[in-house]
Specification:
Four copies of one chain form a homotetramer.
Chain A lengths: L12 H6 L2 H21 L5 H13 L4 H11 L4 H8 L4 H6 L6 H37 L4 E6 L2 E7 H21 L22 H12 L13 H29 L3 E3 L14 H21 L12 H28 L1 E3 L1 H8 L5 H24 L1
Antiparallel strand pairs in A: 1-2, 3-4
Amino acid sequence: MTEPTFDPGFSTAEMSRVFSPRGHVAGILRFEAALAGALADVGLIGPDVAGEVEARCLALEVDAPDILARGWAAGSPLLPLLEEIRAGLSPDAASAVHRGATSQDAIDTALMLQAGVGLDALRAGLMGCGAKLRDLAAAHVATPTMARTLLQPAGPMSLGARLALWLEPLVRHIDELEEARDNLALQLGGLAGDAAAHGMEAAAIATATAARLGLVAPPTSWHGDRSRSRAVVAAVAATCSSVDKVAGDIVLLAGFGEVTAGSGRSSSMPDKRNPIDAVRAVAAAQVCAAGAAVVLGARPPELERAAGGWQAEWLAFPLVFHTAGAAVEALDRSLGVLEVDQERMLEALGGVDHAAAIVAGERVVAAVTAAFSAVEERG
Amino acid sequence: MTEPTFDPGFSTAEMSRVFSPRGHVAGILRFEAALAGALADVGLIGPDVAGEVEARCLALEVDAPDILARGWAAGSPLLPLLEEIRAGLSPDAASAVHRGATSQDAIDTALMLQAGVGLDALRAGLMGCGAKLRDLAAAHVATPTMARTLLQPAGPMSLGARLALWLEPLVRHIDELEEARDNLALQLGGLAGDAAAHGMEAAAIATATAARLGLVAPPTSWHGDRSRSRAVVAAVAATCSSVDKVAGDIVLLAGFGEVTAGSGRSSSMPDKRNPIDAVRAVAAAQVCAAGAAVVLGARPPELERAAGGWQAEWLAFPLVFHTAGAAVEALDRSLGVLEVDQERMLEALGGVDHAAAIVAGERVVAAVTAAFSAVEERG
Amino acid sequence: MTEPTFDPGFSTAEMSRVFSPRGHVAGILRFEAALAGALADVGLIGPDVAGEVEARCLALEVDAPDILARGWAAGSPLLPLLEEIRAGLSPDAASAVHRGATSQDAIDTALMLQAGVGLDALRAGLMGCGAKLRDLAAAHVATPTMARTLLQPAGPMSLGARLALWLEPLVRHIDELEEARDNLALQLGGLAGDAAAHGMEAAAIATATAARLGLVAPPTSWHGDRSRSRAVVAAVAATCSSVDKVAGDIVLLAGFGEVTAGSGRSSSMPDKRNPIDAVRAVAAAQVCAAGAAVVLGARPPELERAAGGWQAEWLAFPLVFHTAGAAVEALDRSLGVLEVDQERMLEALGGVDHAAAIVAGERVVAAVTAAFSAVEERG
Amino acid sequence: MTEPTFDPGFSTAEMSRVFSPRGHVAGILRFEAALAGALADVGLIGPDVAGEVEARCLALEVDAPDILARGWAAGSPLLPLLEEIRAGLSPDAASAVHRGATSQDAIDTALMLQAGVGLDALRAGLMGCGAKLRDLAAAHVATPTMARTLLQPAGPMSLGARLALWLEPLVRHIDELEEARDNLALQLGGLAGDAAAHGMEAAAIATATAARLGLVAPPTSWHGDRSRSRAVVAAVAATCSSVDKVAGDIVLLAGFGEVTAGSGRSSSMPDKRNPIDAVRAVAAAQVCAAGAAVVLGARPPELERAAGGWQAEWLAFPLVFHTAGAAVEALDRSLGVLEVDQERMLEALGGVDHAAAIVAGERVVAAVTAAFSAVEERG
């Protein structure tokens, strides 16, 4: 195993924990344990055999990067880990491990388990950003500012309205991230994707395995169909695009001198006040979009299993979550230190009457606040 | 106006009608008529004034490419068309036209109206493909064939199961295209996006305009938030990706000599039987993905209206629908002429026992057929 | 043939002429004429037979969109046109047409001929932009302005230096567009790409055909290798990216009120002065980048000829040139109306000493001006 | 500093060494040492002061991931490292460190130094692949095989010709990777990009610094112009696209049973012979393309320094080289174990006469071999 080759520098503590080799191996072990449990549920193995496998998977400590790298080098990503699981098991238990499954079953299922944690983390992060935006919008509903279209002055508007317009799509993304969980499906198709090795019990085993993992039990396996992983990535990318929008607008407003958002220093100009968290959010969101493009623009899998496109997801999927997490966290920080220069905003308006804009702003802020409250109450 | 600069060659009759300059102008006129009607609904103008505007919009015949090109050249895409609408109206009616609206309101709303027709057309097209796949899967549930992972032989499977695995994501896309309609929202924000010009009646006018157009009435305008158009495009791109998968697999199977799918001729080898419709579907799907990337990878709009990113959507949005329509239509044709060479498939299996695979195939085909029937019944 | 399905609205008169169905058919006819001439050059057909083919190709008038659409529908893009060429020819001449060639030979060669005109047009357009920037830089070398990094104030700089830094990459792009011509290669491989049908004369025929067309004669055909078309598109996309940079900066400076660049009107705010040409350049450049991504991100061709990826180029290639042409033209217009508000710039500096910045600016302007002059002299 | 967040698993030993935090810090230290040397060259500091800085930079051992992460967290990526360099220096030497430079100067220059090693490594890797392809083409010039267009049988061809057609673009990429070195330019512009802090000596300092680093001395700095880093990435991406083509074709031929290329095992079917290195090459190449798209599709930098787009390059640039290295290495391995099943190839031809194809193949192999030999001799 080579040493870690580079550090993306765009992640969060939680995403680093979940979307790491260790987090991936943990997901695979959960899959293998659940499969053994399901085999016992339908009576194909005894509960004690299943218990032995589950205990082994629970207790196993491995060098995750190493064991994954060895599998990859051998062209069979799961074999070293399966050998490690089976070592020290009774013959019955060893033969029950991974029964009727293929590498892609374990790997895809693990990615879905990881994605579940990642989606929840992003949702929580957006909730935090949303609360800050809601409070800022309420505080600034009567603050007049210059609207800008094509970056040109376009008359007065309520700053609260602008902030509410930033918030409105985030409210929908919070729901979309929840709905994206419908795509977190068990993968269990065996060699050809038809679960033939599980015979007449195939549907029951799949249902029981999915239930044990808290995943959706799909009607079929999806080795050659990436629409589920695609939908998960699409929801994250959509979220990041809106994060990019808000962060980008903060950078613009800081450029106009109408807000400050942090105090990034410069190695050559010590008193600059760079909106560094907003810039970081923009950068992370752009990398997220590129990672998402690996999945969204992937060539379709060839017949029963892709020859390259699926393997590319192994890198792209974590990259998308790392950078999305970083983008949301950075936006949250940026909103936390946002300071508005009301005088500068008034100055830009140059005395234009803004009464109607404030009235309109109250309506916009109220509408979005109500929508956010509804999401907040659902939790 | 320059002559039409190029013909994409990847479209359908319906998409050509809807996503043309003429179709776009028709959408704008519907918006302007509905807005006038809504202004009357809330009492801001008289019903006769509204009626005069509506009649004018309904009857107006313009040279659509020319009037759009002139607006674009002047940097104000709507002005020539508004002048044309107002010409010949009474002063009251002329002054009611486009009241409180901005160009982006009309253009975005027109695109949403066009997208509604486009989504329905794609959904109908997928239904047709799905019915063909369902019938093929039923007919071939007992046909054994060689599964291929990484394009390598991977044991026997039911051809019906493979066909059902192709169908399964299409079933979900049919639903997703329907759900994508939730993003077809009225755009109505006026200059700064806060609908200030409509005063206390803003919400009522928006609700009435949306109702007249069969669009969602969103809580706010979305000039600077592209998450709605993005979601529409994402649903179309996801569909196209699965179309690409099925068509690509047909090309591969034709390469293995296990199916034929049409008889494209060659200018240098007359007896070739190229799977030309499947190739066309793959090509159109790739262009669709690129068009989608304009929207999915767009830099975020700057503050209250984008300086470039939104304008790029004007070309990308139609391109996505033209090519998606072409891809679905070509897949449908390809499935319509698909012929299976059962002997060749048996030969590839070389006598391997396939009884278990056929049993598994029955389960897979039944599960997917049930899912498709449920969608079909919903209509 | 359906009516033209949409008008991109991002093109120029020249690109519309060259990258149209008519322009494409003209390229194919030039290829067929040159091939016949080359066959005569090496003695495989008589000069009178070649002359008959050449005269026919020169004189032929066809409905270009229709004949291309019919070929595409039949799955053999060239057959209808070849039948049209052969109609009315003597049997000897008819049998000499397209001898040893395949559809891809004619289509790829035609695209290369079109690309040659397109590259020259872009180069000329950049020269015009460059001259304007050179003059502006010279005029403003002593104009102090506020540098902005991360959009934050970063101390004084010469406006001339900023303009020269815009110009510097354009100078290199002018050379790169010229160098990209090295990729304009004849395609001539016949059915399998090995030119077997031309026997021992294959190399001589290729050399003669290329010479007649002013194209590079490559060592082999390149049906399954898209690196040449890719390199052409990459050069155009690189150019467009720098155009996007300059136009985007103009929009930003207009936002800061430090320049104006045109007077796009608004349908709701008549006295706005939108930098409409710069916005158009940004929009066109974004679509260009997406079109380029079809080629740059294409899945590789399968074996001897791609099943989808190549066909996608037919739409992407023209799209790239149309939009690149539009972007360059729009930037040129924007630079032509650029007006600098020196007082506003001084005001932003707030009295900071800028003497050193002006001195540095002189150096930067002189260096870039020298580089541009060198390119201008080469022509 | 969080623990390494994920391991791409697509890299090589050399790329892991160069494109790591340690490799990046090494590049920054080389920049700072060279700048001090250049300041002495032009007489702005004494040679002993420069020597002290150079010795410090040479000897410094730091925890590279940590020191970069701390800088990034503080919004000033270079400050912690500069403090570390200055610690223990005499006041004169400490004040000479980084004089007149800005963070972007050091970071961009370091990336260019890293890219130089990366380009050489890719070039050497391609040379190895090329030699294998040349030998294979020579060995199989008389081996007849079925050509396939659109994956359909297209008549006989020489297998050697196919292999030579794979090699031909690689020969040009070897040159292009060399030419891409012309873009490896020093970055040295100071705060506003005009090198004002270096006064009249600016050009001389830049020339001397570049010479010490073996980099091109550009006429100006390029903070806001990414065309150079873009050109480097474009050359790597073009290479990877052709690697993808060859590897993808190997997977296809293995699918047809006409070659084997390695013996990747399956966790569920032990006697499969998956072409695992070719699959890995395809996967790595796809991720490379996505990383490249971050740079090639980046939104343009805003004025004097990008607010997000440049920072995204920090992750994308290493990702491109890691995955490109992995793709080339995997292709090399795949070619090293490629075995041809001549009988199967003959069988597919079914007795068709292939004499003309072999003759044509000799010409193609000879032409490409000559081109490769010319590149090999240049070294």
